[in-house]
Amino acid sequence: MNNKKNINIVIIGGGILGSTIALALAQKGWNILIIEKNKFKNLKIQNEPYLRVSALNYQSIQFFKKINIWHEILKINRYQSYKTIKILENKKTILNFQSKNIQIPVMGYIIENNILQKILLKNLIKKQNVSLKYSNKSINLNYKKKKWEIIINNKKIFTDFIIGADGKFSELSNIIGIRNYGFQYEQSCLLIIIKINQIIKKDIVWQEFTSTGPRAFLPLFDAYACLIWYEHPKKIKDLKNMTNKKLKEKIRKKFKNELNNIKIIKKDSFPLFFYHASHYIKNGIALIGDAAHTIHPLAGQGINLGLRDINTLVNTLNYIKKNSLSINNKKNFYLYEKKRKQDFLLMQSSITIIDFLFKSNFQLVSNIKEVLFNFLNKSNLLKNQILKYALGLYF
Question: Could you tell me the CA-to-CA distances from 35 to 163, 170, 313, 357 in Å, in that order?
Answer without folding.
Answer: 10, 14, 19, 42
